[in-house]
Every structure is written in C-alpha cells, then in structure tokens.
Design goal:
147 residues; 86% helix; elongated; binds fe (ii) ion
Amino acid sequence: VYYAEKRILSALPKMIDKASESELKQGFETHFRETEHQVDRLDDVFQKLGVESKSVSCPAIDGIIEEAEDIAGDVSDKNVLDAALIAAAQAVEHYEIARYGTLIAWAKQLGYNDSANILAETLAEEKQTNQKLTNLAEKRINLQAAE
Ligand SMILES: [Fe+2]
C-alpha cells in the first residue's frame, strides 16, 4: 500500500486536470491531500513497527492506473470522460479498501492495535471517497454522460 499510495499521488494530478465537473475536480483535489496524509500514516506505522518505510512495487495498482490512463485517453466527450474518471477512481478506491481491510485484520491479529487504529483512519477515508464518487455519479455525472 505504501507503493500504491505514492503511485496514486503521482496519478491524481492528471485526473484533477482531466475532470471537468467542479465537484469532481474538487473531490480529486481533496483526495490528493488526504492521500498525502495517508502516506504519512504509513510512515508512522513503519516507525511503530521499527522498520524503515519501504516501497515494494505493486503490479495491481500499476494496472489499475494504466487502465485509467488508457480510458481517459480514449474519451473525448467531457461528460463521458467525467463518468469514466469516476469509474477508474472507484477501481482504485476498492483496491485500497480491500488492502487496508486485510492490513487492519492482520495488525489486530498480531496485537499491533495502535497501527490498526491508524490504518482504520485511512480505510474510513477511502470508503468515504468511494461513497462520494458513487453519489456524484448517480446524482449527476452519469446523467450528463448519458445525454
Ligand atoms: Fe489512499
């Protein structure tokens, strides 16, 4: 997840750039700042465990982000592009939700409750971001894209 969060940080500015709808753009900007804090939280967890922060490349997130970039490159209509960006961002959020869920369960199992609590803060943000994207898609952006 350390690698994934950093990869997401490097991808989000492009998504902010490509988003047209103002709430979507703002949502990506907010999540960029949240992601910076999420990296800091992971640094805290590494520190608590007494190990150096280390990225191990993750082909899953690379694939999800590559796909997002491909899709964004294929769509010219700005409303359809917004809907596609939401779809791509939700794939990222679901990936993160799966990973953090596992990490929290493992941290608890191993008795690292402080670390589990730190990771749970991030998990809550990822879930909230996913929910905001669903709301935005269903209330507005999918409708505009369909027109
Ligand atoms: Fe994240």
